[in-house]
């Protein structure tokens, strides 16, 4: 997908041209009215245009020369167009991607199963609940869950990643996406989305911005901007009697121009572009955010919950050793462990079967489904196993097996705890094995902490974010891995319920919580978290519960999500500071120029020595419009983010953008004034 394409330059012609067209179309008052500050400017543009026409037609004893009224009017129109352009160009980048995605949504046929027979139908006719067969070389016709089979799938259409991925029925990797291609084997898929509601459809709507709504923060900022606009409206209106009293001929055009210079047009014009660009930046990191609100929440996250296995560690836990109980032969332990794992398709289960084969030559077992009853692993029981005849073999977390054995009236040897503690302290996972009430020993599962993870957690700490590892594993293993990885805290022996409880507790303390997950049993927690990032490989339930989907299914992607969120908040904050500082400075730049004619005492304030009052006002209006264009790249790219504490970042940006915002207008207006004088306009 286009998300992996090199970041296009900000002003790529293919985006620039439609954006220019859009910025004129967006002059429609019904669009502009959604942005109150810009609406005031548009009303001002219409008003000054009418004033100019009136002067041309009726030649009254005009207070302002025609060239002045016309120039101000034109630059006010430019101001609105520039703001529209900022928004259009931010949207344009998503629109280009949506087009790429649409082209990909080719019409395909589906092999629908009806009463055990296949029939060929158009993919667009598939409904929820339909079952379809897909074989090697064919396109998956719709979103769904695999009911039967395993297949390798090329998902590059969605993720941009060309390496095939394995999708299989049963586990947490059973979801498939319409538009991806089966490379090997045969699967039966149960369709989970009606036409028009597929992942690809939603993705198109999202990147196009069609689904975008103002976030609560944006609404709050809008209200602030409207407040400022009203205050300045009063300030400008009261200036009129003051001017009359002082004998200054203040034209209506001048009052409108002054008003536009004072209201926060810079941030008002860039606000929506900043929001759109934030979601776009996330998309470039292959994360689909379902709402702008989620991106903002990511920028304010206090606590981050992460899984141990597969997130902090590599996740393919391998059996490395059988450690039998005192009166048990190692071979018998290996035999029982293998029996308990024959149907266990988890990496743990498979590795146990292999180790027993390698070490003790245990192979050639046939599985008889009449005789063997397999008990699959679940996060609640934390055990799995097999019943065959008299035997009931179980393997699982040590505390779970201990409870199980005690419930059956068995005795737990002291050595079991010693051995498990030893394994746990090295960061390994001890799996206890029992046959009925008899404890047979422990299997040592080894897992490896991912490379570079310490640096990632150090960055989180620098941002002031607390990281908590949650795991179903025992406290000793958890503590060892937590120490090695450098997380701040951990929760061991967790079940899906305790995960959920932890999130609620944090939220009750007023914290914003983020988490990643992929399983159906992560879904409630993903929905509860303020930022829930679901893995694209995860189940349908997980993807629907979260408010973001990571197409790369990389659990440590949260770090980048948080950074993009912070960058969005900072960009908006700094540009607001800059905009308001700018407006205040303009007030002091223009007023002395207007009044110095009648109040020579104001001369020391008139530091700018502008050519004339008309020139002062026109220069300010031009500066006011141009600054929007100049700040578009910064709004789209975002201010550079450094992982410092929130207070330090704020102090720094207030200083840079506040002081910069005060100085810029003086320099800018003076330059424009000199330019106007040079071309002989004033
Ligand atoms: N296939 C399995 N059969 C039996 N027991 C298992 C199996 N897989 C894991 N266990 C045991 O159950 C415990 C809990 O597993 P669970 O998947 O809930 O957590 P985890 O994988 O250890 O950590 P995380 O929550 O980070 O994924 C494991 O620590 C292990 O002791
Ligand atoms: K302004
Ligand atoms: Mg697990």
Automatic annotation (TrEMBL):
ATP binds at residues 344, 348, 377-384, 395. One of its GO terms (molecular function) is ATP binding. Pfam families: E1-E2_ATPase (PF00122), Hydrolase (PF00702). The chain crosses the membrane at residues 35-53, 65-86, 219-244, 250-276, 584-602, 614-634, 654-672. It is a multi-pass membrane protein. Mg(2+) binds at residues 518, 522. The keyword Lipid metabolism does not apply. The active site is at residue 307. Its EC number is 7.2.2.6. It comes from the Bacteria. PANTHER family: POTASSIUM-TRANSPORTING ATPASE ATP-BINDING SUBUNIT (PTHR43743). Belongs to the cation transport ATPase (P-type) (TC 3.A.3) family. Type IA subfamily. This is Potassium-transporting ATPase ATP-binding subunit.
